[in-house]
Write a structure and sequence with these properties.
It is built from nine helices and nine strands. The protein is an alpha/beta fold and 235 residues long.
C-alpha cells in the first residue's frame, strides 16, 4: 500500500520504538495527525486478563474531567415522576412501553441508554438490539438506577463506559484532536486510573501489557506501561 507524503511526515514525527509518557504522547498527537477533520483521540489498552472468565472481566464507567468533545444523545426508559425527572435533567428521549416498541422497530438515534429498575423487564427484550452496540443498561456502570437525573447529567457531561473486549483490549475515546494537550492528558490519566482500580483480584502477572494513543487516522503513539502505577495514583 502506497503511503502518502502527509502520512510519511506524520510517521517521521513519532519514534515507533520509543515508549512515551502520557504528557509526551498527548503533545505529539497534533504533530502526528495529517487529517483535515476534527479527529477523535482514542486510547487502546491491552490488558493481561482473559475476558472469557467472568472473574477477569474489566468493566466500568467514568466521567472524564474534560468530556469527550461530543454531546451525547441520552434515551431514558422510565415512567411517571422518574420520566419527568429525566426530562428535566436534559434527556433527549424519554418513555416506557411506547419507547421500547419504537426501539424494537429500529429507532437507534441515541448514544446512551438509562433505565429505572422497574423498566428492565421490558428493556430486557431489547438485548439483541442494544447488547451488540454496547448500549444495554447495566447497574454496574450506573445506567440502571432510580437516580435518573444524575445518570443523565453524567452522560451529558462526558461519562464513558469501558469494557475489555475478547482480545483483552479496552478501546475508548478520550477527547478530540482540538483539545489542549494538558486536557487530553488529564482525561487519559483519569481513564488509566479507573482501569487500574478495576483490576480483577484474579489477574496474574503484568496487568497492563501495552497502551497506545492515537487520533482517528493518526499515528499510534506508545505509552510506557511502567509509568502507569504513578499515573493511576495521581488520577
Amino acid at each position: 500500500m502506497k503511503t502518502g507524503r502527509k502520512r510519511k511526515d506524520a510517521l517521521a514525527k513519532v519514534d515507533r520504538q520509543k515508549l512515551y509518557t502520557v504528557d509526551e504522547a498527548c503533545a505529539l498527537l497534533l504533530p502526528a495527525s495529517f487529517a483535515r477533520f476534527e479527529e477523535t483521540v482514542d486510547l487502546a489498552v491491552r490488558l493481561g486478563v482473559n475476558p472469557r472468565h467472568a472473574d477477569q472481566m474489566v468493566r466500568g464507567a467514568i466521567v472524564l474531567p474534560h468530556g469527550i468533545g461530543k454531546s451525547k444523545r441520552v434515551l431514558v426508559f422510565a415512567k411517571g415522576d422518574k420520566a419527568a425527572e429525566a426530562e428535566a435533567a436534559g434527556a433527549d428521549f424519554v418513555g416506557s412501553d411506547d419507547l421500547v416498541k419504537k426501539v424494537q422497530e429500529g429507532f437507534m438515534d441515541f448514544d446512551t441508554v438509562v433505565a429505572t429498575p422497574d423498566m428492565m423487564g421490558q428493556v430486557g427484550r431489547l438485548g439483541r438490539v442494544l447488547g451488540p452496540r454496547g448500549l444495554m443498561p447495566n447497574p454496574k456502570v450506573g445506567t440502571v438506577t432510580m437516580d435518573v437525573s444524575k445518570a443523565v447529567k453524567e452522560a451529558k457531561a462526558g461519562k464513558i463506559e469501558f469494557r475489555v473486549e475478547k482480545a483483552g483490549i479496552v478501546h475508548v475515546p478520550v477527547g478530540k484532536k482540538s483539545f489542549p494537550a494538558n486536557n487530553l492528558a488529564d482525561n487519559v490519566r483519569s481513564l488509566l486510573g479507573a482501569l487500574m482500580k478495576a483490576k480483577p483480584s484474579t489477574a496474574k502477572g503484568q496487568y497492563v501489557k501495552s497502551v497506545t494513543l492515537s487520533t482517528t487516522m493518526g499515528v499510534g503513539i506508545k505509552v510506557d506501561p511502567a509509568t502507569l502505577a504513578q499515573e493511576g495514583a495521581e488520577a
